[in-house]
Design brief:
The complex is a heterodimer. Chain A is built from 28 helices and 35 strands. By secondary structure, chain A is an alpha/beta fold. The two termini of chain B are 16 Å apart. Classes of the chains: A alpha/beta, B alpha/beta. At the A-B interface, strand 4, helix 2 and helix 4 of A face helix 1, helix 2, helix 3 and helix 24 of B.
């Protein structure tokens, strides 16, 4: 640790710290303008120059490493002269249009000029009058305000890895432009706007509507995906005008398009603005009390007539932890049933089931930050830029800066492909086979971690037997990769001292999801990549609070905190002052069957739209229509609200307090930025009101009451306080002992399983294979209510390889009917080299498409045929 | 010879404008030699200083041109002071030149000179500040005059070129600070693109270039470890390779006349590549069964992996260069035949593949165990021939070939390998890293040892008789001459001898009819400016011209020849371009590396950049690459140390063309 003096004050710097950082540590202010801690220094502004004794020329403190014995002076006449002269150079041609500048009030030139006491400039130069670049979506560049500090270029390249922006031209003509020609290859994360110290890069959506000083900022978290990025909601007169972020956060203030621009969904005019009750076949606005009474009385009646198990509930990963907790309590304590489930049934619960049998970790085993320093990463069945961008950025940076060897295995091209050492274009559905193939090679080459396997795992022999039996040829045929490719991937993965596996929707949502996750875990176990820093398993699911939903026990299998009734009954019955139900409870498929047989008569849906988000939505719709009582609480009308008997308007994430749990298992606070719009209420409160109307209040008068109860009943929440859980929150790592003794006393266990092959039936009638995923600009279906994001991706589409499109004689942008054996939808075609011939890809975000209607149970892959629909309609 | 009327170079100054000469610091030690400047030179401005040669000279328009070129081409646009400081100077000098100057402009210029000096990010703009300060001090009269009356139209022509000590020392003139900066910005593809502009084999030179640039590096000359320029180049090349990225070179239509390139070594590959880029149909003919020249048959794969070489050759072939292997010039065809086949020019890049004998008793008597030469030995191994080695091999020589032979023997299972060299380790021409690696692997070195006879029994070698040497007076090469120590004869036990003291070109294929002259050194005679041999239309470069030299020299020669061939075919003549003229001028004025940068980040504690290589015991078991280059983490840190000591060299000359 180098010791130096700065302005005659002794400072001990950390190894590798710059003089600027060391000065900051000692509380000494050095002016900066281009400095941006998120990126490497561009040292372009020169105002942070300091003098170092023995060195002839002033040095920029932002990129000079503090060294032992240095004597640094930050306030000498020479240094002051440089600062003054630089600021005069900055101001000499800078338009002093401050009143109409988008950065007014938060402009760093303005602030520094003020702080340094610069009274204008005596240097002569005409103002720049370059044309403003105004044709990009959402973002505008005013070259006249730009000081080429390169923050935007660097953040775009280094942090996001989009590299959309570049410095173009040289000398005085140097300005920010696009990487290639006029095309802006942009992810629209808006990081350039956040980074810009002036008004050069600005957010078009806030223009002329609100000034920085008029808005109040509420720190909260972005609920759209499961990365849980921290952000600040900027509000003026009860309306959100923009999202900003703070660099001192776990996500370093970095947000994606969804976080930065998706906020406008909150104010979308379709927000439900009244409780609705079906009368004479139509949903009509009613007072809350009318709705509560209706629901309460009908629920009581049905419970009385058919028992509590005739009522079922479906919740959503969009809800907060408190909403989820209240939801399950409502069902278990007020109704008296375990019939609660969610779309996690078709996604994350498979992960948890697989993890429970093998490792006991109920989610990711490391943090996002850990990925920066992992030696190899297998990214399989996920394009992180589409599911959790924050994770994708880390992987990209690791591959470019920290020597991480990236292996991408996917059925289509992903945004990580250009950064990968190995790109394995696998057949859809074959992720599990790929993992088995890699394991087989690793075992054959004796590259497995024998010590780890011996000391920590059970069931290695059955695993080995299975691998010995498998033919490599068969794996190559089923995965579609070459032997060299598979071998290389296996070598890279096995030889890495620390390796991680990231997988997502394609793995989790397929019919084989459970087996597939098991085999990926097997691969991690075989190579000893658990319990090691910077190595582990990252199961990713897009939707915001998917882990919180599971943690809160919104499923029949577990009570909150993965506790089972057998051991935790006492705790809950004491706190809830009522008996817990003894029946097992129904999962979604059981609920559907129950509805079909009439055993389930009432369904209560909170925050979810099963008809859009659940597989085989056709059967589900028919089943739900048979329900005597369908109650839905949500913020927007949806295909499900349309068939409901009663609809309650819920408050959005911006309108309520609570907590959410991100994919790292980080519990964070969501803070209310605006009051609930119209008559809407937070979900937990609606449930409390219904309970009260049923005559058995849950005792929740404030959201902190819910949280407090969570700390009493859920061991991993013990000691947390709602009011003090601010900032980066708290990471918890739930670990469950395996049920059924499968781990046989060892910490971990292999789960040797093979998987079924992809369905090949109907090959001739349905020649193409369709996979569903998500658009990079949308998160679930909720973001399709954001005009800003719709501007980037306005509607659903079908990606098809131009080769297939040619064969079918379908033009780019033409509308086609996509038909599977069980359903169909119509969407425009988008030519794309990202999908291989023989395949099509659709984002499942758009409810009007109802993509999931095309799937039979439990999967996101099916066979389809495409036919041209109606007239040519160019998009 | 031109003489310097006024000069400031570094902090040395000479001024004879007023009659009596003024010197501050002796000029002879620092100033470039006046002999190296062409007759028509008027003045030179560079980051190192300013030189005035002609009496009739005006500082103001030259200064204006200097900042004009900086603004138009060289100011990177990445620092506020550079952008706006040099722009302000340009605008002000423009105004002054139009006769609209004001007295206060002198103050303004002086302020800008100071701010560029103190706070410009790199030496491009800083140099302008320094030169302007020179001008305002030593040529104040010119400025005052210009403010009063403007500046009359210029009678001189200006030629500018960017330079940096590393760039200038690199025979290929690669924009080194440029590609290093791209690596620091994690822009691997862009970095490689910059390298490929001037040199087509980045993966190879990133491994085996002797890196003269690193000796010129300002960081090194300020007492720190040089920027590892060579290995950083490898980082860029390997990134593309291991990520399997497409090579961003466009295949262009080959509409220019066909050219034959003989020899697919570095010189030939480079000539073929640049001729292809200029639109020529190129046929590349190689006499050996494999391409790559000395890189493939003279360098063992543990230093230069074959797949890297193959890929870089494949890239050139994919651009449309035809490769014909196995046809030997002089045997299957003659130069005349090539012209008859329709080639409009011929390039000879035949390298230097014949070993030189030591000239000792028993060397050429067919004794079992005595090899013809190191380069032949390596070629046989690399072509996959079976070579019988004994248990105790002695290699004679001190260059890289000797080390390559020794380490190859070790990898073939020889238990005792020794190198005999007649001077000390300090005089060895081999790369110090190679010597270090060889020693780690267990090779014995006998320094100050001169072999005098091969000992044998029954025509089988049994040992090598040697003499002890000591160092005497320096010889013409500047190295101290080894002289024998009287009566110091001793015998080394050995059953194999590989002489590796040097090699030369095999020019037997030439017949007097070819009209190609050979020098007394046994190399092909060319005009060094145009690379044309004594036969019109036949060009040559590489080791066959220079004698055994480095890959990067051969690449540079091939590149220069390609441009000359292009010009020769189009215009029937060869005149060095302005760019080449400037390179030659810069080569003259930057002979000493000088120190351009006045301040730098304090040095690192270790004097060497860490290398990552396989363990010696492990690596001698196979021919896998020893050195694994840098990690990205190291590359990022090392690239960040570059001082970007670019500067513009501007020459004012008197006539139409230089």
């Amino acid at each position: 640790m180098p010791m130096l003096t700065i302005d005659d004050i002794d400072v001990t710097a950390d190894e590798g710290m710059t003089i600027l950082e060391a000065a900051g540590k000692a509380g000494i202010w050095i002016p900066t303008l281009c400095y941006y801690p998120k990126t490497s220094p561009s040292d372009s502004c020169r105002v942070c120059a300091v003098e170092i004794e023995g060195i002839g020329r002033p040095m920029t403190s932002c990129n000079t490493i503090a060294a032992e014995g240095m004597r640094v002076h930050t306030d000498t006449p020479r240094v002051r002269a440089i600062r003054e002269e630089v600021m005069k150079l900055v101001l000499m041609d800078h338009p002093l249009d401050c009143p109409i500048c988008p950065a007014a009030g938060e402009c760093e030139i303005q602030n520094l000029t003020y702080r340094l006491g610069i009274h204008g400039t005596d240097l002569p130069l005409e103002r720049r009058t370059d044309p403003i670049v105004g044709h990009w979506p959402l973002i505008e560049y005013n070259p006249n305000l730009c000081i080429t500090c390169l923050r935007c270029v660097k953040v775009c390249h280094e942090v996001i890895g989009a590299s959309a922006l570049a410095l173009k031209d040289v000398g005085y003509n140097a300005r920010i432009g696009t990487r290639e020609g006029d095309t802006l290859w942009c992810d629209f994360c808006g990081e350039c706007v956040e980074a810009c110290p002036t008004g050069a890069m600005s957010n078009k959506t806030v223009k002329r509507w609100a000034r920085s000083w008029e808005m109040t900022k509420t720190p909260t978290i972005c609920p759209l995906c499961s990365a849980g990025c921290r952000m600040e909601i900027n509000v003026k007169d009860g309306r959100i005008f923009r999202i900003t972020s703070n660099i001192d956060t776990h996500n370093s203030g970095t947000l994606c398009a969804g976080g930065r621009f998706g906020y406008d969904l909150v104010h979308h005019e379709e927000r439900l603005d009244s409780p609705l009750l079906r009368r004479n076949g139509r949903l009509e606005p009613v007072f809350w009390e009318v709705g509560f009474t209706y629901v309460a009385e009908n629920l009581k009646r049905i419970v009385k007539e058919s028992g509590p198990d005739s009522v079922a509930g479906l919740a959503s990963p969009r809800l907060t932890n408190e909403d989820c907790y209240a939801f399950q309590k409502f069902f278990r304590a007020v109704i008296g049933t375990n019939n609660i489930d969610s779309e996690a049934r078709f996604s994350y619960l498979r992960v948890q089931r697989a993890m429970e049998l093998t490792t006991g970790h109920m989610g990711t085993t490391g943090s996002l930050e850990d990925l920066l320093d992992t030696d190899a990463v297998l990214v399989i069945g996920i394009d992180p830029l589409e599911e959790t961008p924050a994770l994708g950025w880390k992987v990209k940076l690791a591959a470019r800066r920290y020597d991480s060897n990236l292996i991408v295995a996917n059925s289509r091209e992903t945004s990580l492909d250009p950064f990968a050492r190995m790109r394995l274009r696998i057949r859809p559905y074959s992720e599990s086979e790929l993992a088995l193939g890699m394991m087989k090679i690793i075992l054959d080459l004796d590259l497995w971690d024998g010590k780890f396997v011996r000391n920590n795992t059970a069931n290695f022999l059955p695993m080995k037997n299975l691998l010995d039996k498998i033919s490599l040829k068969g794996i190559l045929r089923r995965t579609g990769v070459t032997e060299e490719g598979l071998r290389e991937a296996a070598l890279i993965f096995a030889q890495a001292p620390r390796a991680s596996i990231i997988f997502g929707g394609d793995v989790i949502q397929q019919e084989n999801g459970l087996q597939c996750v098991m085999n990926l875990v097997n691969l991690a176990l075989l190579t000893g990549n658990l319990d090691r820093d910077n190595a582990g398993i990252y199961p990713i699911f897009e939707k915001g609070n998917i882990l919180g939903l599971c943690d809160m026990g919104v499923m029949p299998e577990y009570l909150p905190g993965y506790q089972v009734a057998a051991s935790a009954r006492g705790t809950f019955e004491r706190v809830w002052k009522t008996d817990l139900p003894y029946t097992k409870g129904r999962t979604v498929p059981d609920i559907v069957r129950g509805l079909e047989t009439g055993d389930v008569r009432a369904v209560y849906v909170a925050g979810a739209d099963p008809l859009t988000d659940y597989p085989n939505a056709g059967r589900l719709a028919a089943a739900l229509e048979k329900a005597e009582l369908l109650v839905v609480q949500d913020i927007f009308p949806s295909p499900t609200t349309r068939i409901a008997h009663c609809v309650f308007p819920a408050a959005s994430f911006a309108e309520k307090d609570g907590t959410m749990t991100n994919i790292e298992h980080r519990i964070q606070r969501l803070n209310q930025a605006i009051p609930p719009l119209g008559p809407s209420m937070p979900d937990w409160n609606i449930l409390e009101q219904v309970s009260a109307a049923m005559g058995s209040s849950m005792g929740f008068f404030d959201v902190s009451d819910v949280f407090r109860e969570m700390t009493l009943t859920i061991p991993m929440y013990k000691g947390l306080k709602f009011q003090t859980l601010q900032g980066d929150g708290r990471i918890v790592r739930p670990f469950v002992e395996a049920g059924e003794g499968v781990r046989r006393g060892r910490r971990y266990s292999f789960a040797p399983v093979r998987t079924m092959e992809a369905p090949e039936k109907n090959r001739d009638a349905f020649p193409l294979e369709m996979t569903a995923g998500r658009s990079m600009y949308h998160f679930g279906s909720i973001s399709t209510r954001s005009r800003n994001l719709l501007g980037l991706c306005p509607e659903g589409y079908v990606e098809i390889n131009p080769q297939d499109a040619d064969a079918l004689d379908i033009g780019d942008g033409e509308r086609v009917e996509v038909r599977s054996p069980v359903g169909s939808f119509v969407a425009p075609v988008k030519y794309s080299g990202r999908v291989s011939p023989g395949m099509v890809y659709v984002p499942a975000n758009f409810p009007e498409l109802g993509v999931y209607r095309l799937f039979e149970e439990n999967t996101t892959v099916c066979r389809v045929k495409l036919t041209r629909y109606g007239e040519v309609d160019r998009v | 010879m031109k003489s310097i009327i006024f000069g400031r170079w570094g902090d040395a100054l000479t001024d004879s404008r007023t009659g009596s000469e003024v010197h501050e610091r002796p000029k002879d030690s620092l100033f470039p030699s006046e002999a190296g400047f062409p007759e028509n030179i008027v003045a030179v401005m560079s980051g190192k200083g300013f030189l005035q040669f002609a009496e009739d000279f005006n500082f103001v328009p030259m200064m204006r041109e200097y900042v004009k070129q900086i603004q138009a081409k060289y100011c990177c646009g990445k620092c506020i002071t550079g952008i706006k400081g040099s722009k302000t100077i340009l605008v002000t000098l423009d105004r002054i030149s139009r006769g609209e100057g004001r007295e206060s402009d002198l103050d303004l210029l002086s302020r800008m000179a100071d701010v560029l000096n103190d706070a410009a990010k790199c030496s491009v703009c800083q140099s302008a500040g320094e030169l302007l300060r020179d001008g305002l001090h030593h040529y104040r009269g010119h400025f005052v005059q210009a403010i009063e009356t403007g500046v009359p139209p210029d009678r001189v022509r200006y030629l500018g070129s960017i330079s940096a000590p590393c760039m200038n020392t690199c025979p290929c003139h690669i924009n080194i600070p440029g590609y290093v900066e791209m690596l620091q910005e994690l822009r691997y593809a862009e970095s490689l693109e910059i390298i490929r502009e001037e040199m087509p084999l980045p993966g190879i030179t990133g491994r085996i270039c002797p890196a003269p640039c690193e000796k010129a590096c300002s960081v090194a000359n300020l007492g720190d470890a040089a920027i590892p320029i060579k290995t950083l180049k490898r980082v860029a090349a390997d990134y593309e390779l291991i990520h399997g990225l497409p090579v961003p070179l466009e295949k262009r239509k080959l509409t220019e006349p066909p050219v034959a390139v003989i020899g697919a070594g570095p010189a030939g590959l480079s000539a073929a590549y640049y001729l292809n880029r200029l639109g020529h149909e190129v046929t590349l003919m190689e006499g050996l069964p494999i391409s790559g020249g000395m890189v493939s048959v003279g360098i063992p794969p543990y230093r230069q992996p074959r797949d890297v070489l193959d890929r870089e050759i494949a890239i050139i072939r994919d651009l449309g260069v035809n490769l014909e292997c196995g046809a030997v010039l002089g045997k299957e065809f003659t130069i005349g035949d090539l012209f008859k086949r329709g080639f409009k020019a011929v390039f000879l890049g035949i390298g230097s593949h014949r070993s030189l004998p030591i000239g000792i008793e028993g060397e050429n008597e067919g004794i079992l165990g005595v090899f013809g030469g190191g380069i032949d030995f390596l070629r046989d191994i690399n072509l996959g021939k079976t070579v019988a080695l004994g248990d105790h091999v002695v290699i004679v020589g001190g260059g890289n070939t000797a080390i390559d032979c020794a380490r190859t023997c070790l990898r073939m299972g020889v238990s005792q390998v020794s190198i005999v060299y007649r001077r000390t380790e300090a005089e060895m021409p081999a790369d110090p890293e190679e010597v270090e690696d060889a020693r780690e692997e267990g090779i014995n070195f006998h320094f100050l040892t001169q072999p005098i006879a091969v000992l044998s029994q029954d025509r089988k070698m049994t040992g090598l008789r040697c003499l002890r040497m000591e160092l005497g007076e320096p010889d013409t090469s500047g190295r101290r001459r080894p002289v024998p120590v009287e009566g110091s004869e001793f015998d080394l036990f050995a059953d194999c001898l590989i002489p590796a003291i040097g090699q030369k070109s095999s020019l037997d294929f030439l017949s007097p009819n070819d009209g190609i002259e050979v020098t007394r050194r046994g190399t092909i005679r060319v005009d060094p400016r145009t690379m044309m041999t004594t036969r019109i239309g036949v060009f040559a470069a590489g080791d066959a011209v220079s004698g055994p030299l480095t890959v990067v020299h051969a690449l540079a020669g091939g590149k220069r020849a390609a441009h000359m061939i292009h010009q020769f075919i189009a215009e029937g003549k060869c005149v060095p371009s302005e760019e080449q003229w400037m390179h030659d001028l810069i080569a003259n004025i930057e002979k000493d590396y000088g120190v351009l940068v006045t301040a730098r980040v304090p040095g690192r504690s270790e004097s060497k950049v860490p290398r990552s290589k396989l363990d010696a015991r492990e690596r001698i078991a196979h021919f896998h690459e020893v050195d694994s280059g840098f990690t990205q983490k190291t590359s990022f840190i090392e690239a960040g140390r570059c001082l970007r000591c670019f500067h513009l060299v501007l020459a004012a000359v008197n006539e139409e063309t230089p």
